[in-house]
Amino acid sequence: MTAKVSLDKSKIKFLLLEGVHQSALDTLHAAGYTNIEYHKKALEPEELKEAIKDAHFIGLRSRTNLTADVLEHAHKLIAVGCFCIGTNQVDLIAAEKLGIPVFNAPFSNTRSVAELVLGEILLLMRNIPKANAQVHRGEWNKSAVGSHEVRGKKLGIIGYGHIGSQLSIIAESLGMNVYFYDIETKLPLGNAQQLGSLQELLSSCDIISLHVPENASTKNMINAERIAQLKQDCIFINAARGTVVDIDALAQALESGKIRGAAIDVFPQEPASAGEVFESPLRKFDNVILTPHIGGSTSEAQENIGTEVASKFVKYSDNGSTLSAVNFPEVSLPEHHGTKRLLHIHANRPGILNKINQVFVDENINIAAQYLQTDPQIGYVVIDVETEDAHSLLHRLKEIEGTIRTRILY
Ligand SMILES: NC(=O)C1=CN([C@@H]2O[C@H](COP(=O)(O)OP(=O)(O)OC[C@H]3O[C@@H](n4cnc5c(N)ncnc54)[C@H](O)[C@@H]3O)[C@@H](O)[C@H]2O)C=CC1
Ligand SMILES: O=C(O)C(=O)COP(=O)(O)O
């Protein structure tokens, strides 16, 4: 009998960081995976390099930076799971080159962020953060000056994706008029209107809320020049990523009274641990709500994320499916019965598929099914074959020049 080369489930190691929800462990256990190293916190870079050496799967949140340097130590890594929405903390290109798909939970915490932002809008429109701070200090300023209902006010959303559009719907239910700016043409939900330029949005709305990802186009997107375009007395909210806003320019606008209040959940530099002091020029303002990157931190969101991302791990490990991977050709696969499944990840160069198929011609082995997806960098082909000796086939596939990774599923 041929020796099995696909790993026994007990040998497949999962490294889970940053206190991902118990639902992730439950999902993995239910699928027969028990080899789990669990950490409540993020690891320091050197600890991470050590821990990742023998991990087949790593699960992390927004604090763990999976750089190309760290990935070089990940000799056995099969997949990465971001137990959150953002994937900017992972070097997606480096991971792809190594044949490692990265998964995330694209909408499990959408509602939590939208609800937090809505609450902040209501509080800031009533000057509650400032009133709260004053009363805590023993000051009693009972006044209606500058305090407003949200009904009929203009909310400007930058980035009309999952979170932006969810916020749009719930803000409209309170009678707000919603406008948005997005680089893509988006179907407006409800009565929301897409505006043609960022300047138009900034200069016309009473409240501006950011919901864009961190990427080259959003880095320092809201700089001094953009802040100067804001409507006098507006409210400014950022629960997207810290790199999107020039914090010093925002602090100046708060100082000068151009912005009447702000809520900021994400920062250019965030403390690495609870023990580290948070430094920011925004700390001194009573009219600014500061939160420690907790936009998506609700029990509901974390439980859903745990199940969702762990299920993607299980699917990839058991079946080879890469559906919804953010850096990798997406292949959705049926279950395979009575065949062996070979997975082959290769550089996307001419001729490789021919060489792969030639192996089966040479060995006179029937291909029961074949699935292929490519992107400009890599190709991912999955081949179900009718043979008992898949082991020797895998060895031949490994020898093909341009092969990045191979795996076999029984
Ligand atoms: N504070 C927190 O705890 C959380 C923060 N986030 C952040 O929120 C971001 C947005 O999340 P989703 O709505 O789920 O993402 P999404 O991908 O559904 O939507 C992002 C939208 O931004 C648009 N966009 C991209 N670049 C743009 C640009 N330069 N100008 C205007 N629009 C642009 C896209 O076209 C898309 O419509 C995430 O990438 C993440 O960084 C997400 C969850 C929790
Ligand atoms: O989902 C995201 O992108 C977030 O920013 C939330 O990150 P977290 O899981 O709270 O570290």
UniProtKB/TrEMBL annotation:
Pathway: Amino-acid biosynthesis; L-serine biosynthesis; L-serine from 3-phospho-D-glycerate: step 1/3. One of its GO terms (biological process) is L-serine biosynthetic process. It comes from the Bacteria. This is D-3-phosphoglycerate dehydrogenase. Pfam families: 2-Hacid_dh (PF00389), 2-Hacid_dh_C (PF02826), ACT_AHAS_ss (PF22629). SUPFAM superfamilies: ACT-like (SSF55021), Formate/glycerate dehydrogenase catalytic domain-like (SSF52283), NAD(P)-binding Rossmann-fold domains (SSF51735). Gene3D superfamilies: 3.30.70.260, NAD(P)-binding Rossmann-like Domain. NCBIfam families: PRK11790.1. It comes from Mesocricetibacter intestinalis. One of its GO terms (molecular function) is NAD binding. The keyword tRNA processing does not apply.
